[in-house]
Write a structure and sequence with these properties.
Strand order of the largest sheet: 2-1-3-4
Order of helices and strands: HHEEHHHHHHHEHHE
Low-confidence stretches: 1-16, 25-32, 232-239, 242-248
Number of domains: 2
CATH superfamily of the largest domain: Porin chaperone SurA, peptide-binding domain
Shape: globular
Strand content: 5-15%
CATH class of the largest domain: Mainly Alpha
Number of helices: 11
Mean pLDDT: 77
Number of strands: 4
CATH topology of the largest domain: Triger factor/SurA peptide-binding fold
Distance between the termini: 41 Å
Helix content: 55-70%
Radius of gyration: 21 Å
Length: 248
């Protein structure tokens, strides 16, 4: 499970960006911070958004402050990512899913095993984040993957007809290439991996769009306009999310 979570993203990026959600349930105005996103009782504050965005900026190869349009695009991407993560965590609550200590310890051990001795702790120190907070954020990330697996695993079925059709459409004319001319089992395994990834992506899009319709997701427009610097950018970003702007 853990390897899937961190595919195509760095270890710390995977946990730190989503990490602002670790303690945001039932937070908001009572915390002395303005709410930015609300999904039922789950609230993400402006402070938590800015904290996540600071991490993104620190990992960016160029200073986003010198590139206003790139900065606004990065802010919009983060807004969408955090809103989606909030509805997945809310779905976990609805399904009664959680992560046990055993599951968490196994994931932590697997991650640490990929680092030479003592280098994991040193890497974590460079991010100025405590191990306890990192672990809580990792737990959230694993929980979201568990929700996705629970909801979509049975929907991804690869049939012999799927394999044959993919071969006819994409590989038949390349039969003499070394990558294609190997054993039939290796070729089928390669095709199955591609088809599974393709079907998973399609199923995820349908599933997440249905969740967006199911949950009442609110963006506090006044706060978002302060962050993005433009009400037009906020409106454009919210349209493709199907979110509700919350007036102040």
């Amino acid at each position: 499970m853990t390897k899937k979570i961190f595919q195509n993203m760095g270890l710390l990026a995977a946990t730190l960006i989503v990490g602002v959600l670790a303690g945001c349930a039932n937070s908001g105005s009572n915390s002395g911070n303005e709410p930015l996103i609300r999904v039922r009782d789950r609230v993400l504050t402006v402070f938590e958004f800015n904290e996540a965005f600071e991490f993104i900026q620190s990992a960016h190869p160029q200073d986003l402050k010198d590139h206003p349009e790139d900065m606004r695009n990065a802010q919009r991407r983060l807004l969408k990512q955090l809103a989606v993560e909030m509805i997945i965590l809310e779905r976990a609550k609805e399904l009664g899913l959680s992560i046990s200590d055993e599951e968490l310890n196994k994931a932590v051990a697997e991650i640490k095993s990929d680092y030479p001795e003592d280098t994991f702790e040193k890497t974590l120190l460079k991010t100025a984040i405590s191990y306890e907070i990192w672990e809580a954020r990792l737990k959230n990330r694993i929980l979201m993957q568990k929700v996705v697996d629970s909801e979509l695993k049975d929907k991804i079925v690869i049939t012999p007809e799927d394999i044959a059709d993919y071969y006819e459409r994409n590989l038949k004319t390349r039969a003499q290439e070394p990558e294609i001319a190997g054993s039939k089992d290796d070729l089928n395994e390669m095709i199955i991996k591609y088809l599974r990834r393709e079907k998973a992506e399609k199923a995820y899009k349908v599933w997440i769009n249905n969740l967006k319709k199911q949950y009442n997701i609110e963006i506090y427009s006044a706060q978002w306009e302060k962050i993005s610097g433009s009400p037009n950018h906020a409106d454009q970003n919210l349209e493709d999310l199907d979110l509700t702007q919350k007036p102040e």
